[in-house]
């Protein structure tokens, strides 16, 4: 049983994610304050936080994480010094989760390092599709800290339902890691879900194979994945679906990390514009996570 947190009294955002922080604060009906950042010529950061509060939600997605991690640490120190007794970090995209073991001699277990680092700064955590592999829950990352890992499936399913998704549509995930996302999107919509098999030879050298007997011929396909960065996984998956006779292919990603150049490739591949959730600010954002995250935060308060 977690200690009583009362009601969170403010959201703190950062300049690059100010809009999402304000949307979350609006759903929670509490004030939102945006940190002031200054970068010195040598690359060091200075963080200023207005309006000290007792219980704060700090909102920041950890894509391109290195400077952000330092700035979050500085922000937490300011809030603690000003008297904050409960700090909840909402990091829709949580960095350094994939390196959860030593794969080659001399490598760190980055997940443990970052988990211990942030666990010293914050009291509880909310993340979305945190890219866990052999680690089963966020509680194993942030030991001793209440943590919630949310699925991006509900906003994707809701968007498909609102758009009038065709009954014969097939939901495809490119690999076994995407299976929970596929099931959580396809199930509520009464659609067929299929998971491929991915062979990765490098960051940009990926092949996705789909079951040859998959019921795809003549049917629309929606590919879903937790992260879209280089796009190679999606491109390979889409080609495999077309070989099996997909009528058309649409793409949804929870976290969009891809560049404008990759966006042009999506268009060139006939995939249009992928749609993503708004945890990582990106031109492809079309699905709001605010309500989902707000419900998770309220569950902390009700404990």
Automatic annotation (TrEMBL):
Gene that this sequence comes from: prs
Database matches in Gene3D superfamilies: 3.40.50.2020
Naturally occurring in which organism (per UniProt): Azospirillum oryzae
GO MF entries: kinase activity; magnesium ion binding; ribose phosphate diphosphokinase activity
Entry's family note: Belongs to the ribose-phosphate pyrophosphokinase family.
UniProtKB keywords: Kinase, Nucleotide biosynthesis, Plasmid, Transferase
Limits of the Ribose-phosphate pyrophosphokinase N-terminal domain: 17-118
SUPFAM superfamilies in UniProt: PRTase-like
GO cellular component: cytoplasm; ribose phosphate diphosphokinase complex
Phosphoribosyltransferase domain mapped to chain residues: 169-252
Domain of life (superkingdom): Bacteria
Transmembrane segments: none
Identification of the protein by name: Ribose-phosphate diphosphokinase
InterPro entries named among the record's database cross-references: Pribosyltran_N, PRTase-like, PRTase_dom, Rib-P_diPkinase
EC number per UniProt: 2.7.6.1
Enzyme class: transferase
One of the GO biological process terms: 5-phosphoribose 1-diphosphate biosynthetic process
């Amino acid at each position: 049983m977690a200690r009583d947190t009362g009601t969170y009294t403010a959201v703190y955002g950062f300049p690059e994610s100010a809009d999402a922080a304000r949307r979350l604060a609006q759903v929670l009906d509490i004030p939102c304050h945006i940190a002031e950042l200054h970068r010195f010529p040598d690359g060091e950061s200075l963080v200023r936080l207005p309006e000290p509060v007792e219980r704060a939600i700090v909102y920041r997605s950890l894509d391109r994480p290195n400077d952000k991690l330092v700035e979050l640490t500085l922000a937490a120190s300011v809030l603690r010094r000003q008297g904050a007794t409960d700090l909840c970090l909402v990091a829709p995209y949580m960095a350094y989760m994939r390196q959860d073991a030593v794969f080659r001699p001399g490598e760190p277990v980055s997940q443990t390092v970052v988990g211990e680092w942030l666990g010293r700064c914050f009291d509880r955590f909310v993340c979305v599709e945190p890219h866990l592999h052999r680690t089963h829950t966020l509680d194993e990352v942030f030991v001793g800290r209440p943590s919630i890992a949310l699925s991006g499936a509900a906003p994707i399913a809701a968007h498909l339902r609102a758009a009038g998704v065709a009954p014969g549509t097939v939901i495809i995930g490119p690999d076994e890691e995407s299976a929970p996302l596929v099931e959580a999107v396809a199930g509520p919509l009464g659609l067929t879900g299929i998971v491929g098999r991915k062979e990765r030879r490098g960051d940009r050298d990926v092949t996705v194979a789909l079951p040859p007997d998959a019921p795809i011929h003549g049917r629309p396909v929606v590919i879903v994945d937790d992260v879209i960065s280089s796009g190679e996984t999606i491109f390979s998956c889409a080609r495999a679906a077309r070989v099996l006779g997909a009528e058309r292919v649409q793409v949804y990603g929870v976290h969009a990390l891809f560049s404008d150049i990759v966006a042009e490739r999506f268009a060139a591949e006939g995939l249009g514009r992928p749609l993503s959730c708004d945890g990582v600010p990106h031109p492809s954002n079309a699905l709001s996570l605010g309500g989902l995250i707000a419900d998770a935060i309220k569950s902390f308060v009700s404990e």
